[in-house]
UniProtKB/TrEMBL annotation:
<comment type="similarity">
    <text>Belongs to the LEA type SMP family.</text>
</comment>
<protein>
    <recommendedName>
        <fullName>SMP domain-containing protein</fullName>
    </recommendedName>
</protein>
<dbReference type="InterPro" id="IPR042971">
    <property type="entry name" value="LEA_SMP"/>
</dbReference>
<dbReference type="InterPro" id="IPR007011">
    <property type="entry name" value="LEA_SMP_dom"/>
</dbReference>
<dbReference type="Pfam" id="PF04927">
    <property type="entry name" value="SMP"/>
</dbReference>
<feature type="compositionally biased region" description="Basic and acidic residues">
    <location>
        <begin position="42"/>
        <end position="54"/>
    </location>
</feature>
<feature type="region of interest" description="Disordered">
    <location>
        <begin position="23"/>
        <end position="55"/>
    </location>
</feature>
<feature type="domain" description="SMP">
    <location>
        <begin position="14"/>
        <end position="68"/>
    </location>
</feature>
<keyword id="KW-0677">Repeat</keyword>
Amino acid sequence: MSQEKPRRPQQEPIKYGDVFNVSGELSSQPVAPRDAATMQSAEDKTLGQTRKDGPASLMTSAAQKNEDAGFIGHNTATNIARDEGVTVSETYDSGKRVITETLGGQVLEKLVEDTNGAKGTEKNK
């Protein structure tokens, strides 16, 4: 017999404002599968891989929960991602590697890493 706690049904979709420190229209939008796929593609293209603890991974998990709960369809994308896009940039400044990931012009995460491997993350949430 399982000792797991029964899961409560998800009452409303997981929104960007629940996962990231974003504002405006983006904060009230449900995390969508196509947005997550677009962010994953941008991470792959820029970084050569999807970061296991990065925004694409968080978005994929939230979008899957939203889809499983029936709040959104598999091919759903927000107008913000579609119209304003997602970006992943990697720059080097004063011996530090800086990875910035945005959606609709809002920073979801900024990762600062010393070139010797020390990391510091400025997550927006």
